[in-house]
UniProtKB/TrEMBL annotation:
<dbReference type="GO" id="GO:0030003">
    <property type="term" value="P:intracellular monoatomic cation homeostasis"/>
</dbReference>
<feature type="domain" description="HMA">
    <location>
        <begin position="196"/>
        <end position="256"/>
    </location>
</feature>
<feature type="transmembrane region" description="Helical">
    <location>
        <begin position="946"/>
        <end position="970"/>
    </location>
</feature>
<dbReference type="Pfam" id="PF00403">
    <property type="entry name" value="HMA"/>
</dbReference>
<dbReference type="InterPro" id="IPR027256">
    <property type="entry name" value="P-typ_ATPase_IB"/>
</dbReference>
<dbReference type="GO" id="GO:0016020">
    <property type="term" value="C:membrane"/>
</dbReference>
<feature type="region of interest" description="Disordered">
    <location>
        <begin position="148"/>
        <end position="177"/>
    </location>
</feature>
<dbReference type="InterPro" id="IPR023298">
    <property type="entry name" value="ATPase_P-typ_TM_dom_sf"/>
</dbReference>
<feature type="transmembrane region" description="Helical">
    <location>
        <begin position="599"/>
        <end position="626"/>
    </location>
</feature>
<keyword id="KW-0547">Nucleotide-binding</keyword>
<feature type="transmembrane region" description="Helical">
    <location>
        <begin position="976"/>
        <end position="998"/>
    </location>
</feature>
<feature type="transmembrane region" description="Helical">
    <location>
        <begin position="638"/>
        <end position="667"/>
    </location>
</feature>
<dbReference type="InterPro" id="IPR023214">
    <property type="entry name" value="HAD_sf"/>
</dbReference>
<dbReference type="Pfam" id="PF24534">
    <property type="entry name" value="HMA_PCA1"/>
</dbReference>
<feature type="transmembrane region" description="Helical">
    <location>
        <begin position="351"/>
        <end position="369"/>
    </location>
</feature>
<dbReference type="GO" id="GO:0005524">
    <property type="term" value="F:ATP binding"/>
</dbReference>
<dbReference type="GO" id="GO:0016887">
    <property type="term" value="F:ATP hydrolysis activity"/>
</dbReference>
């Protein structure tokens, strides 16, 4: 296929003939493959690719001796060879099949190469076993259609950067068959980005242990662990260490259960059920082209990763045939919550088991029964041993594993010391009792059993609270489980079929019924309706959607029906992208977390020292003050020591920061504020000054041309406008976009192909320029072009308009006057900020008059106005404020203010759901300027709760340890009840984080 690679792809190859002159399907194969190697083509996948495919299939039909369609009629050449052009029937069928690929910026070539088993030139995900692959494509998607961010090897509207091997050559034989064993050439060889789902982590100490275990491997780097969400993310050098070996090592070192959660960022995956024992037989080699990896999750479930551009999910499921019984019943909400729920159920079973054995022990110890003491002791020993056995995998194994492999003494060791001391003393006491030599302090199996049960119960409650918190703020839960697929591409007679949303694939058209959730991102083809996007943008007003509008996954349709073309797959759509950013931000450690980690790190040694002191003190008290016997003194001292070990809990310190960050990030995301950096949450509450860009930030992004002046003779106006249109068409500055739209609406020759200019250069903060023949054409600000004094320009500026001036060889040939209105919320937001004592500044590259007019309309003082600012001037303005000791928040739209956004203490960018991942700022606002207030409120609420959590953790541990140690003599915590310490210390921390839900958005919280 003619994917139109840029110069350098297949360098040195002769450009193939435009005509298909082969006499066989093999020659047609060669033609399709060779056409992929056109070094001179400027375009990417377009109608030419479809025409080439139609010609190939038409040739194939002739060679097979059977017409693929009834109308397959056309003439052959005098020599009997097939013509260069396909018959009309094959053309029609090819366009019906692949036109949707052009709309979604997919690579037709890759799909056809995979489906027809051709020798690939651009094999990105699958490599032929005998085709020579000497180059790779590194994609930098600049999707002008604002669609899927998944790059293809040749999309019409995105650019490619190619890395090539100088020795690259093509296999002349068309016999190369694409196998599923493929080499992903878009990644560096031997390197893979890994995301693990981890179960068993309960606090930051667990996260630090896993992080340390990962970092000890020389093949692992860029480690990020989030214990609240239960995942670990890192890059792995698979040439040095295999993933399976690494996971086995992690399981051994940490005791956590680690499972690979996802494959390449470019891949999709399906979890399929297979008959027991057949999972090992499902291999990449046994599956169709496009499958990149197969993992066995359990004996009856396999995870198949595949390239969605080469094979669709439904096609893959169909190819599995009777080897699978269907999709695995996956939790369609949040995988982190799903993994946490599995852990919750396991903890529930363990707690129930422990409680069933503990209750009889308590009855025998505290009740009045007719059973003799010896029988009570034996029964209690048996039951307590059963509970103690439960503690082996839950407490003993992780504690001892950490001590041996990681040389870390963690909280589980405190529990182990407590229950071991109580159990062993009780066993010894039973032995003395059976020997008719009872100790002064008899056995107390109720202490070890109740301690284990209460600690398990505390972890059960804490796990439940964490899951509820994660689910409450999860944006992944917005992803619906099913979709209505349109079976027929001809919409009028289409039948719908409800399918699992995981089975959607590129090229699909789906129906959104009234009041239903939109299953994934798409573009409206038919219908009109209003869509509620408040769950992602925070905007309460519904948004009108009609033909050509973009739909966002997880938003709710109004009263109309919409037919849409899929643009992004579930798992890679806006909901998933926002969720990934929020989770990534919560996995970053702010500076305050370092303090928490240091405190938690010293906690266990300090408690151990304190418990040792308690043991010695109570031995002296019992022996010298109370004059107890040695046996009784030892028993009493041990009970106080056990209580100290059991009641202390560093988990509250470890949860103090991460729990708040997870909840804060989720709440902000639901309000349309995507926090990409945990440091932003930490710093935003200290903001003293807010600096706003004007165009696209205080004002709406859509400027309107209200006046245009052409200074050329009337007969050349059309040529002048055509040149201006070509110059500004691809520029993303709001002024250029507005002028381009204005010129397009005024174009009287829209049927004629518009001219294109090459080598257009953008000068940030100034404009654009281009060499046209012997002339230099420039478009930009009046100050840059030195035309401020021109009569028409000065008049427009005086009237408060933004101007775009165009010069040819320094001579003004046109000027456009533009105006836009302040955002509806701008004045309200600025007033609220100023009422909090936060000065608001405005900086802009526009002329002073235009900036002053907008500032006056929204209530900004003229003392805080900076006009005619270049990008470096904006950066200098922010720097000047910071040098005065102020904490600065800068908010812009990312156009000409990226350096200022980066310079500020908190960089905020107003964007849209389509560019949230490409934004360079720490914070992205999807719902308008009100997000600035939301950010400040969320940050302040987070800070208050973090402070509360630290204070509570400190007070609890000091007071609880003093009570357990017997410092108040007559008031103490019995060791049997010390197990409640975890729930008492942790639950308030989680509730404090969740309390942010009980406050109103954008108010002081």
């Amino acid at each position: 296929m003619a994917c139109g690679n840029k110069p350098g792809c297949c360098a040195g190859e002769k450009k193939p003939s435009a005509a298909i002159s082969s006499s066989s399907a093999e020659d047609a194969d060669a033609k399709v493959t060779a056409a992929c190697c056109d070094p001179e083509a400027d375009e990417h996948c377009d109608e030419t690719c479809i025409e080439s495919l139609a010609a190939y299939e038409c040739q194939k039909a002739c060679d097979d001796g059977a017409a693929a369609v009834d109308e397959h009629v056309h003439e052959h050449g005098d020599d009997g060879r097939h013509g260069a052009v396909a018959c009309s029937s094959h053309l029609r069928l090819a366009f019906e099949r692949f036109s949707s690929y052009l709309e979604t910026a997919q690579c037709i070539c890759r799909s056809v190469i995979a489906s027809h088993s051709l020798t690939p030139c651009c094999a990105g995900q699958a490599a032929s076993s005998n085709a020579v692959l000497g180059h790779a494509h590194i994609h930098q998607d600049k999707d002008k259609l604002d669609l899927d961010d998944t790059s293809s090897c040749s999309g019409h509207d995105h650019d490619h950067d190619h890395d090539h091997d100088d020795t690259h050559s093509h296999n002349d034989s068309p016999a190369g068959i694409i196998k599923g064993t493929a080499v992903d050439l878009e990644k560096s060889a031997g390197h893979e980005h890994i995301l693990l789902a981890v179960s068993g982590m309960t606090c930051s100490g667990c996260g630090n242990k896993l992080s340390k275990a990962l970092q000890e491997s020389p093949a692992v780097y860029n480690v990020k662990v989030n214990f609240v969400l239960g995942n670990a993310e890192f890059d792995l050098d698979t040439a040095h260490t295999g993933l399976d070996a690494l996971i086995d090592r992690l399981d051994r070192l940490t005791g956590f259960r680690c499972v690979k959660a996802s494959s390449s960022a470019d891949d999709q995956h399906l979890d399929l059920l297979v008959p027991a024992g057949t999972a090992p037989n499902v291999t990449v080699e046994s599956l169709p082209a496009g499958v990149t990896h197969v993992d066995t999750l359990d004996p009856k479930t396999v995870r198949i990763a595949f390239d969605p551009l080469a094979i669709g999910a439904r096609d893959l499921l169909q190819a599995m045939g009777d080897r699978t019984s269907g999709l695995s019943p996956l939790n369609h909400r949040d995988p982190a919550a799903s993994a946490g729920r599995k852990r919750l159920y396991a903890m529930l079973y363990k707690t129930t088991y422990a409680a069933l054995l503990t209750i009889p022990v308590l009855v025998l110890a505290w009740g009045h029964t007719l059973t003799d003491q010896r029988t009570k002791a034996i029964v209690s020993l048996v039951l307590a041993t059963g509970v103690q056995a439960l503690a082996v995998p839950e407490f003993y194994k992780p504690a001892i594993t950490s001590l041996i492999y990681s040389r870390v003494v963690e909280m589980d060791m405190l529990v182990v010391i407590s229950i071991t001391a109580a159990y062993i003393y009780s066993v010894v006491a039973v032995g003395f009792n059976l020997a008719d030599k009872p100790l002064a302090t008899p056995e107390f199996f109720e202490t070890s059993t109740l301690l284990i049960t209460l600690v398990l119960f505390g972890r059960l409650v804490a796990a439940y609270a964490r899951i509820r918190a994660v689910e409450a703020v999860s944006t992944r839960s917005l992803q619906p489980a099913t979709a209505l697929l349109l079976e027929d591409a001809v919409a009028a007679s289409s039948q719908t079929r409800e399918i699992d949303a995981r089975l959607l694939q590129f090229g699909d058209k789906f129906l959104v019924s009234p009041h239903c959730t939109i299953p994934t991102d798409g573009r409206v083809l038919e219908g009109t309706s209003e869509v509620d996007e408040s769950m992602l943008t925070g905007e309460s007003l519904p948004v009108l959607k009609k033909r050509g509008a973009q739909l966002i996954a997880g938003t709710i349709n109004g009263s109309g029906s919409l037919t849409a073309l899929l643009t992004r797959l579930p798992g890679k759509n806006t909901v998933a992208e926002i969720s990934n950013l929020v989770e990534e931000a919560s996995s970053h450690k702010p500076r305050v977390q370092d303090l928490a980690d240091k405190v938690a790190g010293w906690f266990v040694p300090v408690v151990t020292i304190a418990a040792s002191i308690v043991l010695v003190v109570w031995l002296f008290v019992c022996l010298l003050v109370r004059h107890q016997a040695a046996g009784g003194a030892i028993g009493t001292a041990i009970t106080y020591t056990i209580a100290v070990f059991a009641v202390s809990c560093p988990c509250a310190v470890g949860l103090a920061v991460p729990m708040v960050l997870v909840v804060a990030g989720g709440i902000a995301a639901r309000a349309g504020v995507i926090i990409k950096s945990a440091e932003s949450t930490e710093r935003a509450h200290r903001v003293t000054d807010v600096v706003l860009d004007k165009t696209g930030t205080i004002t709406t992004a859509d400027l309107e041309v209200v006046e245009s002046v052409l200074l050329q003779p009337p007969e050349s106006h059309q040529d002048t406008l055509s040149l201006i249109s070509a110059l500004v068409r691809d520029n993303k500055h709001p002024v250029s976009i507005a002028v381009s739209k204005h010129l397009a609406s005024q174009d009287q020759n829209q049927d004629q192909p518009s001219q294109r200019l090459e080598n257009i250069r953008t000068i940030p903060g100034a404009g654009v320029e281009c060499i046209v023949g012997t002339s230099t054409l420039r478009a930009g600000s009046a100050r840059w072009l030195h035309v401020q004094s021109h009569l028409d320009v000065s008049r427009l500026i005086t009237n408060g308009m933004t101007t775009l001036c165009i010069t040819r060889n320094s001579t003004l040939i046109a000027v456009f006057g533009l105006k836009n209105n302040p955002r509806p919320e701008s004045a309200r937001v600025i007033q609220r900020l100023q009422s909090r004592g936060i000065p608001v500044h405005v900086v802009s590259g526009d002329e002073t008059k235009a900036v002053e007019e907008i500032a006056l309309a929204v209530g900004i003082s003229t003392a805080h106005i900076a006009a005619r600012q270049t990008p470096s001037d904006k950066q200098a303005y922010v720097t000047q404020l910071m040098e005065q000791g102020k904490t600065v928040l800068f908010c812009g739209d990312g156009t000409n203010d990226a350096v200022a956004i980066t310079q500020a203490d908190v960089g905020v960018q107003i964007g849209s759901s389509s560019d949230v991942s490409r934004a360079t700022a720490d914070v992205v606002l999807l719902g308008g300027l009100e997000g600035v207030v939301v950010l400040l409120d969320v940050s302040r609420a987070s800070f208050r709760r973090i402070v509360f959590n630290f204070v509570w953790s400190a007070l609890y541990n000091v007071f609880a340890i003093l009570l357990a140690a017997g410092a108040f003599v007559y008031v103490r915590i019995p060791p049997a009840y010390a197990g409640l310490g975890e729930i008492v210390s942790v639950l308030p921390v989680i509730l404090a984080a969740l309390s942010m839900f009980w406050t109103r958005r954008s108010q002081a919280v």
